[in-house]
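so my prof wants the structure for this chain in the C-alpha cells format not the other one, which i didnt know existed until like an hour ago. anyway here's the sequence
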Amino acid sequence: MNANTFRFAYRLPLLLWHALIHLPITLLLMLPPLGRIDVRGEPLEHRMIRWWQGGLMRVFGFRIHRRGVPLKGPTLFVSNHVSWVDIVALHSQRMMGFVAKREISGWPVVGWLASRGETIYHERGSSESMGGVLHEMLSRLRAGRSVGVFPEGRTRDGREIGPFHARIFLAAVEAGVRVQPVALRYGKGGSAQTVVAFAPGENFAANFLRLLGEPARDTEIWFLEPIDVSDAGGRRRIAELARERIVAAMAAP
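here's what i got, hopefully its the right format
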C-alpha cells in the first residue's frame, strides 16, 4: 500500500463521519430559532457553517494559517482562484455568499454546502445571468451582508493569476462598501498551488478523491489591506489594485 492509498483509506472514514454525523448536527443548530442566536457578534448559523467547513479542511489534511483579519460588516472579498477548496477555505474564516458557476450546485457535499452558504450562481457566458448576479450582489451588500468573488472568472493551473474582470466590482462601487483582497496559498509559500488545482481534463470528483489522498500541507489565507472604493478611482482601478496586492502576497516569502 503506497502512502497516498494509506492516507485515502484513513481519511475516507473521517469524511463519512464528518458528512453523516457532524453535518446533521450542523444543520440542526442552523435551524431557527437556534441559528439566529448571537455568538460574539455572529449568528450561530454562520458559525456552524464555518465550523463544518473548517472540519472539512482538516479531513483533507489542510492546516490553515491565517494572516490578517477579515473585515466586519458588508464587504466584497476577492481572491485568486485555484480549486473548489477555495470556497471551503474562505468559508472556514468568514461567512460570505460566493459568486460561483452553476455547475457547483450539483457537486456532492460541496455543492449542497455552497447552496446553504448563500452562494449566488452564475451561468457562464450569459450576460443576462451576470446582470442578475450583480443585482443580487448589490442587494446583499446594501443589506449589510458580505459577498465573495473570484475575479479571474475561472480556476487556473495554479501557475499564474489571470486578469481580474472589472465588471464584478461594480456592486461594491454602487453599494459604497470596501473591497478586501485575499491571497490563498497552498503549501508553504504557495508551493502546492499546482497540486491543488485541477489537472488537465480532471473533473470535480477526480480532484476531490485525489486530494483526499494527498499529503497534509499548510494552507495560508492572507486577508490583505482593504480598498476604499470611494478613493480608488473606479472599478477598473479597484480590479488592478486587488490583483496587485494578491500577486505581491503570492510572491512574498
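also thought this was worth mentioning. Residues 62-251 form one domain.
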